[in-house]
Amino acid sequence: MARPARKALMGAPPSAARSRGLPRHALRRSGAALFLATLVALPFAVLYRAAVWRSPGASWGWDSLPSFAASQEEGADSEDLKLERVLKKASMRDNTVILTTLNAAWASPGSVIDLFIDSFRSGVRTNLLLKHLVIVAFDWKAYEQCVKIHPYCFALGTEGVDFSEEKRFLTLGYLEMMWRRLDFLRLVLEKGYNFIFSDADIMWFRNPFPHFYPDVDFQIACDHYVRNATDLRNIANGGFSYVKSNERSIEFYSFWYSSRLRYPGYHDQDVFNAIKHDPYIVDIGLTIKFLSTKYFGGFCEPSRDLNEVCTMHANCCIGLRSKIHDLRIMMEDWRSYLSLPPNLKRLQISAWRVPQNCSLSWSHR
């Protein structure tokens, strides 16, 4: 789908018209026509800009959480400055941060977020990456728990929407949360930060950076990988991505977010798998590569070799209890692998015992 041009149509300045010797009555008619055209075009321009753009420093609809705002002292920094501060503290030298999102359902002790952080501590060369992780809390309870377990937390409140409860796949609450997340990621790019986004139900077993492609704008994990990193037939999974901040990626996230209006009732992942074929992606020059499930696997398509796996995602799984059950078994399998002597690790005698309670249906994340 071609996007409307961002530059407004401009009429010739009156001085230029006079230099061509136009009579006064012609100028008046031209001026009236331009005024009428502006009145007609303005509503469409406003609608388009409202869908895909926010001015720097605007609220983005992410007002302070009520209980969070009540706890702040008068004169506290704006949410935008708080975000800027936490991104700066957590960023790597090249302005890269690791991001995950959290609501109360996933934040309770022993739940998903504890397993997520534990995987960093148990992984190979992943523990040091925790200092670059920012946890984005969708609700006050999640934020309260975050600050107890991690130094870099950001409260992303959304007025009139309660994201604290478990959001079942493709329910209205789930869809709203996914699109809020995507809108937030666009803001991070606009602030000049590259990011690795990871769902909290992804376990990190090895440092993923050696397996990222150099000089690529947008890299994303897959539910199903067809053995070619550039093949658009790969079925992407929005739960894990590595994105570099530049004009192309920012424009792409604007296009992706605005495309929700073309595909009502679909979440960001399904919309991406539709718009990845759009000629506009080529027009803006965005480079896309898909990450192999050999290194970035999940329950949909597991990373079979524990000597190679970087991350494993509890996708193709419905229900929080099922996720937690299988994630715990996954962590047990990983620790069993780590306890093996090197010669037995090379024999690849270890294997995942998951999924168990989680479904392998392709229709589920």
UniProtKB/TrEMBL annotation:
<dbReference type="Pfam" id="PF03407">
    <property type="entry name" value="Nucleotid_trans"/>
</dbReference>
<dbReference type="InterPro" id="IPR044821">
    <property type="entry name" value="At1g28695/At4g15970-like"/>
</dbReference>
<feature type="domain" description="Nucleotide-diphospho-sugar transferase">
    <location>
        <begin position="129"/>
        <end position="327"/>
    </location>
</feature>
<dbReference type="InterPro" id="IPR005069">
    <property type="entry name" value="Nucl-diP-sugar_transferase"/>
</dbReference>
<protein>
    <recommendedName>
        <fullName>Nucleotide-diphospho-sugar transferase domain-containing protein</fullName>
    </recommendedName>
</protein>
<feature type="region of interest" description="Disordered">
    <location>
        <begin position="1"/>
        <end position="23"/>
    </location>
</feature>
